[in-house]
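User: I'm writing a short report section on ligand binding and want a predicted complex to refer to. Could you take this sequence and heme C and write out the structure as tokens? A short remark afterwards would be nice.
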Amino acid sequence: MRDYTYGAELLVLYLASTMKKNIFAGLLCAVAVLSVNVWSQTRRHDEIMKDVNATYEKLKKSLDAQKDKEAFEDAAKLQKLFKEVEDFWTPFDTKDAIEAARRAQNSFAALSRSVQVNNFQQAVMTYNTAAQFCRDCHSVHRIQAADKSYLIKP
Ligand code: HEC
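Assistant: Sure. The structure tokens for the complex follow:
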């Protein structure tokens, strides 16, 4: 939350300087912009995660069936999704989460290279070790609310 507070201060300073006549309206705007921002960020994260999960499961099926084209596409998509995850965590400065997201990107990049040379055995090994990055991050940064939904813990 620290970064959002900092962002809010900047925003308030900016609005105060440009809207001298009506600082109060400026503050209201700042609060509105902030809440939308925080909300959309958290929304986006679980959308990414649902996508990650579906693609990760799909990749397993593609690998089992040795469908190289599909497997390549799934791995490439996961690489992109984990870049989004990395970008999400960057403003929080949550180093281990950023690291897990980066390692996941590297794994899926390596996996797509294995698939390209038809080395499915190696690709499956990489697939299985990648599950570690999900666990590493979830065990520290994912908490379950009373209603069983998941929340972010930076
Ligand atoms: C950098 C941290 C991080 C990594 C890496 C990560 N996750 Fe997550 N994941 C989270 C957090 C935090 C939540 C809880 C907040 C949310 O739902 O977005 C979550 C939630 C989820 C959810 C629940 C989504 C929902 O709300 O229904 C699934 C499913 C999931 N992750 C799957 C995975 C899988 C599979 C991997 C690995 C291939 C993975 N995650 C890797 C941080 C991570």
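A remark for your report: Residues 23-64 form the longest helix (42 residues). Helices lie at 2-18, 23-64, 68-89, 95-116, 120-141.
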